[in-house]
Amino acid sequence: MRHALVCGAGGFIGAHLVRRLRREGMWVRGVDLKAPEYAPSQAHEFVLGDLREAAVCAAVCDRAFDEVYQLAADMGGAGYIFTGEHDAAIMHNSALVNLQMLEAARRAGVGRIFYASSACIYPAHNQQDPDHPDCAEDSAYPAAPDSEYGWEKLFSERLYLAFRRNHGLAACIARFHNVFGPEGTWSGGREKAPAAICRKVAEARSGEAIEVWGDGEQTRSFLYVDECLEGTTRLLRAGEAGPLNIGSAEMVSINQLVAMVAEIAGKRIELRHVPGPLGVRGRNSDNRRIRARLGWAPSRPLREGLEKTYAWIERQVRGLGGV
Q1: Which CATH number fits domain 3-179+222-246: 1.10.490.10, 3.40.50.720, 2.115.10.20, 3.40.50.300?
Q2: Residue 267: helix, strand or coil by DSSP?
Q3: Per-residue model confidence as pLDDT tens digits over 263-309
């Protein structure tokens, strides 16, 4: 039986990844500061531990795991990472996790290690046109991310690549683009746009208005979690160093996203545009390189994932729970 370690297994993507690896027949150890919020972890072994601490990293990475997935980070949506109030914690906490986990993986002689970077590393000046953002992988330099979260991700990318060059550690890097789906954070300030909009629409009555930050013409692409996992496991098992984008190429404005969710909900929703943290003006995944390197790219329609996500969030809003 092959063995996998999932760091950040208590989080949204990590919990889904654990389930996928279990279905594939792998033995899985998960580790995080917290257990998954909405369903028990399906890891064979789940460790509550702080990956900022070297001793914890060494304890959980105690063998030559076939696959290590490093998803743990201090993160959230625009309301968390773009206010400036959490910059020191975001950079300090995430950098410590990556520094400690890489050394533990090197000492344990792991087979391959995956690092989840972010589209937030791309230069802000390349993402001012909402209709034509440039997020090709080689556009990352000269570097000018729009947030300290992006700067930390870029630093950690270079850290993983340096360990690959200097220590022979088979590190693989992907830049995730706005991953969403059921069992993700949907309230409390750290939720991302799809979950926040699904919650607002679920809470609203038909004909009511919901708040949207800015004019709503800012553009993004959103990737359903199942396709994120497909790209992640493909990249790692191909031994592709990357960094590669893993994201959808279906770009929509935030106003269009609200309209799509409202249609799914069967409600007439008005928009009330208010000031708020926005990030860049436009962002979309450039999938030319992942298609060339892996012979695959995300292709599911955005609406398909939104239907599943809205149904789940609507149940949470109604207090019905369930996964």
Answers
A1: 3.40.50.720
A2: coil
A3: 999 999 999 999 887 778 999 999 999 999 999 999 999 999 999 99
Range with the poorest average pLDDT among 17-21, 188-192, 205-209, 289-293 = 188-192
Residue-averaged pLDDT of the chain: 95
Is the bond leading into 243 cis (omega within 30 degrees of zero)? yes
Rounded CA-CA distance 274/143 in Å is: 30
Given a cut of 80, whether residue 321 has pLDDT beyond it is: no
**Residues with active-site annotation:** 149
- pTM here is 0.94
Architecture of the domain made up of 185-220+250-280+301-317:
Alpha-Beta Complex (3.90)
Domain limits, the chain: 3-179+222-246, 185-220+250-280+301-317
